[in-house]
Structure formats: structure tokens, C-alpha cells
Design brief:
Elements: H1 2-10, H2 12-32, E1 33-38, H3 42-46, E2 53-56, E3 74-78, H4 82-93, E4 97-100, H5 114-126, E5 130-134, H6 147-155, E6 159-166, E7 169-171, E8 179-181, E9 185-191, H7 203-227, H8 232-235
Parallel strand pairs: 1-9, 2-5, 2-6, 3-4, 3-5
Antiparallel strand pairs: 6-9, 7-8
Helix pairs in contact: 2-4
Length: 244
Amino acid sequence: MRKLLRNLLRSRWFQQSAGLLAAGFLWLVWRTNRFSYDPEDVYDIVEPQMPVVLAFWHGQHFMTPFIRRAHHRGKVLISRHRDGEFNALAAERLGIETIRGSGDHGSAFNRKGGVGAFKEMVRALEEGYNVALTADVPKRSRIAGLGIIMLARESGRTIMPFAMATSRFIRLNNWDRTTINLPFGRGALVGGEPISVPSDADAQMMEMLRARLEATLNDATRRAYAKVGRPQFEADPEYQTGHA
């Protein structure tokens, strides 16, 4: 029975159906939440610097396709894991192109398609696409990795950290505290301080900028939840469950 269920979840038709349903649900969430922006002129700040590297936390990703305006070109990095297939199909239904691979620069970097994905992200930025990816790597939630710093150094493009939150959500008790946003509430898009990485950045500077990105994303996430009236869910890192 377990094998049958696993095969069902991995089947192409099931993943396509789930991706289509997820995209429709997320569109409903976007259309029925009243979103505010912090700063209010966030697009005026970002657009002159495009293409940019958009950074966000794992588990806080479901609303990120809607950061893109109609005239923006964007691609998002999604893992090759079978769970990533579902996310990729949903993103593509919402008009976001995908790059498949790993942002982790650890021992499994080659096996997870990281080298090819890194080159593809650099190439996409050169072609004028904004590239979005999580700053943290699997199983190390809310700890920024060096991969995104390396991407900014190699491409010469600015990192734009941001967070999106809704007042109504369900939070899962998993490693990245995945937040499933719900419709009919309030939403917030909060932009953090842009981060530029010099092309000659050494290991010490790279680590300093990595720590700055981590702090900036944590601050943006706290501000986003405060703006929708749910500050307690980011004030306490052990708070694992949200309520609709």
C-alpha cells in the first residue's frame, strides 16, 4: 500500500494536477488578501537595479510568484527532488520560469545538479531575468548559505531580500516551518536592505555579507508578520503552528 501511494505521488499526472490546483489556490489567496508594501515605494527602489537576485526563506515561498509585475522577467531555482516537481509546476502555471537544481554548495552540490543550476542562474541574470531562490539550504532553516552570495559575486547583480506574509495561514511542524497562506485576510510584502557583493570579495567579506543577508531576512520576516497583525509567530522561533 505504501509503495502504491508513493508511486501515485510520483506520477506525472498526479503532480501536474496538484500543481494546477496549487496555482489556482495561490491565485485565490493573492486576490483575496489586501496587500500592503514596506517600503511603499519598494518597486521604485528595485526596478532601476534589475535584473536582481531575489532572496527569501525556505517555507515562506508560496506567495513569492506574485512579487513579479506583469512586465518583469523572472526565473526561480527549485530542487530536483520529487517535492520540487510540484512546486515547479505550480510556479510555471503562475508565469514563472524554473531552474532545476540545488542552491546548496555542500558535498552534494554536484549530485543535486548544483553546478549546472549555478551556471544557468548566472546566464539568466546576464539575459535580463530576475532570479529568485531561497537563501537557506535544506535542513538548515533560517541560516543563510554562501551559495546566494557566490551568485551575486559572480553575476555582479544586487541581492534583494524580501518576505511575504498573510494574516491567515497554517504553519507546518517541519524543518522549515512551511507556511501555507490562506485567503480572505491581509498580506504584506516587506523588502530588506539591498546587498551588493564585490567581484573581489574574499572569504571574510563573503561571510560578513552572508551574516548580513541572514539578519536582513529575519528582520523582513518579523516586520511582515507584524504588519499583518501576527507578530507572535516570528517573535518566538519555537512557535511552530499557526491558526486560521
